[in-house]
Specification:
Elements: E1 2-7, E2 10-15, H1 16-28, E3 33-36, H2 42-50, E4 57-62, E5 65-75, H3 80-99, E6 104-114
Parallel strand pairs: 5-6
Antiparallel strand pairs: 1-2, 3-5, 4-5
Helix pairs in contact: 1-3
Amino acid sequence: MSREITSEYGEIKIHCKVISEVAELAAKEVEGVKKVGLDCYGLIGKILRLFRVSAVKVSMESARELKVSLPIVVDYNFNAVEVACQVQRKVATKLLQTLNIDFLNVDVKVKRIERG
């Protein structure tokens, strides 16, 4: 799956892996996020990474709506709900800035809380 854009010079295709990588990098920038994506799953995540599996899911809900779903681990010293909201904002902002994607739904799944 990819997002297709047409310009005056031709077509531009943005692969879903690019969207998931931008979302993952944006989430890592938020203070209070300890882990994102496959890092949330420990040894299983490391094994899945060998097979180039991504824990950040990207899907087209409709012709005008893109859905991004990503798991995170939150630091114990931060409010998990506030961190998740900041991740949603950051991911939406980065996808708009870098890929011009503005019709977006960002689901954040808090998998764990970790100390330190």
